[in-house]
Amino acid sequence: MSKQYETVIGLEVHVELATKTKIFCSCSTAFGGAPNTHTCPVCTGMPGSLPVLNKKVVEYAMAVGLATNCTITRHSKFDRKNYFYPDNPQNYQISQLYAPICRDGYVEIETETGSKKIGIHEIHMEEDAGKLIHDEWEDCSLVDYNRSGVPLIEIVSEPDMRSAEEVIAYLDKLRLIIQYLGASDCKLQEGSMRADVNLSVREVGAKEFGTRTEMKNLNSFKAIGRAIEGERQRQIELLKEGRQVIQETRRWDDNKESSHAMRSKEDAQDYRYFPEPDLVPIDISEEWLEEIKACQPELRTEKLKRYKEEFEIPEYDAQILTGSKQMADMFEAATAICKKPKKVSNWLMVETMRLLKEAGQEPEDMRFSPEHLAKLIELADAGTINSSVAKEVFEHIFHEDVDPEKYVEEKGLKTVNDEGALRETIERIVAANPQSVADYKGGKEKALGFLVGQTMKEMKGKANPGKVNEILKELLK
Amino acid sequence: MANIISDETIEYVGILAKLELSDEEKEAAKKDMGRMLDYIDKLNELDTAGVEPMSHVFPVSNVFREDQVENGDDREEMLANAPKVKDGMYMVPKTVE
Amino acid sequence: MEFREMTAAEIGQKIKAGEMTAVDAVKAALAEIKKQDEVLNSFVTVDEEGALKRAEEVQKSIDSGELTGPLAGVPIAIKDNMCTKGLKTTCSSKILYNFEPTYSAEAVLNLEKAGMVVIGKTNMDEFAMGSTTETSAFGVTRNPWNTEHVPGGSSGGSCAAVASGETPCALGSDTGGSIRQPSSFCGITGIKPTYGTVSRYGLIAYGSSLDQIGPVAKDVTDCALLLEAIASYDKKDSTSVKRESYDFTSALKDDVKGLRIGIPRDYFGEGLNPEVAAAVKTAAKVLEEKGAVVEEFDLSLVDYAIPAYYVIASAEASSNLARFDGVKYGYRTEEYEGLHNMYKKTRSEGFGPEVKRRIMLGSFVLSSGYYDAYYLKALRTKALIRQAFDRAFEKYDVILGPAAPTTAPKLGESLSDPLQMYLGDVYTISANLAGLPGICLPCGMDTKGLPIGLQLLGDCFKEEHIIRAAYAYECSRGRAAFEGKRD
Q1: Is-annotated flag, keyword Nucleotide-binding (chain B) (predicted)?
Q2: What is the pLDDT of residues A257-315, one digit of tens each?
Q3: CA spacing 20 to 30 A to B84: which of A149, A356, C311, C323?
Q4: Tell me: the pLDDT tens digits for C316-339?
Q5: What pLDDT, on the 0 to 100 scale, is given for residue C484?
């Protein structure tokens, strides 16, 4: 009988914080600048420069710690992690080893098998590295320090996960919490959220953990799933062959769907951490902690409950609306204006989701304003526009954030309720389509639909369809 | 000499420090380091049990910056110091295989 | 009086009185440099053109009444480990042979605010690692009193330049005695302020938790004036301390009545040259006669400062000097195969032997398995040393002793035995570990005609005590002879 193996997984998740400036200097963190234009002596490791800590970074880290049930370290410090690499301008990274800002937390995840607590060992603050661009032409690499010094938190979980499904549920949970806090946009693809997977296998029932490997370069949920499966298989194969798993860092290649060891003779992996002499400790007072607690926004679980109770939104819809902070913010803002939560929910659930899908976008990419959605709902409700015009106007709101009132006015899309004008048009249509009239009179109900369609076409879709029906029926009596 | 520094240790420290020593330098380094460590071992005469390691001399804490962009762009002046530059970036030997 | 004999304050007064212009002063300094520096080699870079241009601007501001300070128009030299915008800053190392900073150190900016004119950058031990200025990649600096001897280090260039009159004053930096020991060897006055008093922003770090910038000059008054100019709270340096007072000149009083001075018995043991011991004891007598309460006491832990220092300073240096890798600035080796080979060759060719020795030691003591035994042990020792000083300063305002166990050794005598050289820092190093201010000033000559230095240590933020004691001693001693034996 073959042995059964269990996979044991822990995660190191790096999250780029949404500060305006870098962690240790007042350079911008904005994306898209020309190479090395968001740099200064501090973040390029110029001799003589010194770091000064961005307060906002500490506050975001505290907020994430509180939202993940961590204990906040009252006397926290920075340490230097020493290693040579060109994306790291000082050849040390300022990080936290001995007194990280948060410890001993957990988040609860839901999977098909029920809910489970995933422990958080610690959260620490550190600086991001620059970007290396590989130049094939000159067979060299080029360094851009625009990202060097962008603040990161690293969330280190306990080895509490047992499957890719749990890993993804955990990442999703973290992503939502952090997005709701406004601490980061957490985009895996763009690298504002990155996960390294620590994985080992052991025989089912074994008490001791097996030797683990660390997998890097995972930049989508799919890659994470594939890498976990690949590494699990690789380790089981090794054990079955009676060989040993080596503790090492491996790099996942998602195109090849395989990984390779990153270790070389020059990587001693001995980081010689010591307390950063250029930065002073962080003392967190009771008052400061209370201040951060008081500013914690409503998180997803609370929102979900409130949407169901306060707005009578069904569970499924509430799940989707709270599935991203931007969606929830949009829902709440539009509802606050038009006081029609169900209608707002409907527009978001149906049309918005459809258009996002069409554009291959995420809710984070929504660019229209809640005021315009609310106004559109008012216009439709008042009968100023009919439902097909409303859908058309919404597409323009979605893409160009047009003001629906102005747009309807300018394009002349208001529903025509003027009985005289309608009657005149319909009379013309009836006169021009004797065959249809005869068909209808002969009992073919379908012919009426054709006449309604012709009328709507003539009126450029702006007619009130109820009214058209009514007048037609009267004329064809 | 109480501290005997092996060839492996010197090799290893050379990797950490990114220094390539000639054979002569290695021999000298083994001797120097051994002698320094013998001298440093004098600290073991002191009973430091219960003494908090002191990294900063003053109990200063909470020195912060506000999150406001202040830095401009002096890329060209900074790049002017670099040994090799291309397209506004620092050029280094290839970092991937 | 000749220019090279004038103090900074005297030059400042002459400029203020219109008897001399800032340009005259710079020209006089440049002339001295031309005359003497071929032999002394105090300077790595002399900024003739920049200094003259700047002097003209400064003179205009003096004439218009914008600049009124006591140091306006006075020339100054800067140790070559402080960044000066657009002016080569090398740390006397091949690895930074062509580095032009894009910004100036805060201390340098402060000097410019006071209207001073930077004339050049002074030689030093490579990255401030050394006690003789012989580890410089740009040649040794010679002691103006006897050019067969070293000027001390690591601020040997600054001290030799002041002693010879190439410049009236200079900035140095002190990590383990690098201002006080060369001041002693060169017969001039230098202050290492309380840690955090002068911003370290722009000082190329050696041991970040120990480094402090300070002035070297011909007398206590100049040092106090200069310290007042450079000391500031700087938001760019997180370890900068907001002091209650930045007034250092009010302490220039010839009055030590009631000042409590302690002399550590442990400073006068084996290894101290008897001539030095005698000169220092005589200086203590002078202060006692002027009304100070002088007594001997046991400081304790004196022998543990050097080993603790070399662990901490080397560890920090191994990390601080990691950035010199041939990527962003400075030297890169000509030929290399791949990244790590480029790093290793660049650093091995770019750094001198003493720097490599300390980087190796520092990397080792931080490496896996040794951190607790060496680094934490040293930090605990540092805490004990600080406590010993705290106890001493409960009883005394000033701790008096020698600055160095001997006068300046001959060139070439020290480097062959690094450990022996390190032991020469025994009196200065503990002030850096404990963050204390210290001043060194001349208190006599040995039979070879080399100056002997007196060191006064104060409690943290109590520069006023050591400045007062030093000034009172200086008033009795009289003007030190600035001119060396050399013709």
Answers
A1: yes
A2: 889 888 676 777 899 999 999 999 999 999 999 999 999 998 888 899 999 999 999 99
A3: A149
A4: 999 999 999 999 999 999 999 999
A5: 46
Nearest-Cα residue of chain C relative to residue B75: C102
B neighbours by CB contacts (3+ pairs under 8 Å): A, C
Distance from the B40 Cα atom to the nearest Cα atom in chain A, whole angstroms: 19
Residue C210: CATH number of its domain? 3.90.1300.10
Residues of chain B with pLDDT under 50: none
**Domain locations along chain B:** 7-45
The overall longest dimension of chain A from CA atoms, in Å, is 96
Q: Tell me: domain B7-45, CATH 1.10.20, correct?
A: yes
Q: Side chain identity at A110, as an amino acid letter?
A: E
CB–CB of C249/C224 below 8 Å? Answer: yes
B65 vs A52: CB contact, 8 Å cut-off?
A: yes
Residues of chain A positioned with their CB less than 8 A from the CB of B74: 40
Among the partner residues A84, A143, A275, nearest to B90 by beta-carbon distance: A143
**Active site includes C218?**
no
Q: Does domain A419-475 match CATH 1.10.10.410?
A: yes
Specify if C293 maps to a domain. Answer: no
* Residue C188 near residue C163 (C-beta atoms within 8 A): yes
Verify whether the Cβ–Cβ distance B64 to A55 is below 8 Å.
yes
Interface contact flag, B14 C460, Cβ < 8 Å? no
Q: What is the pLDDT of residues C171-180, one digit of tens each?
A: 999 999 999 9
Confirm whether C331 is domain-assigned: no
Q: Is residue C269 domain-resident? A: no
Helices (H), C367-408: 371, 377-395
Q: Which of B11, B47, B15, B4 is nearest to B26 (CA)?
A: B11
Q: Which of C14, C79, C121, C218 is catalytic?
A: C79
Give the residue range(s) of CATH 1.10.10.410 domains in chain A. 419-475
Q: Domain tally for chain C?
A: 1
ipTM over 0.95: yes
Containing structural domain, residue C125? 3-259+403-477
Number of inter-chain CB pairs under 8 A, B vs C? 157
* pLDDT, tens digit, 9 for 90 and up, residues C85-132: 999 999 999 999 999 999 999 999 999 999 999 999 999 999 999 999
Residue C79 designated active-site: yes
**Token pair 């701790």: residue:** C399
CB-based contact A47 C323, cutoff 8 Å: yes
| Spatial CA neighbour of A422 closest among A466, A365, A369 | A466
Dihedral (C-alpha) A250, A255, A257, A262: value to the nearest 10 degrees? -10
Put simply, the answer to whether B83 touches C330 (Cβ < 8 Å) is yes
C178 in active site: yes
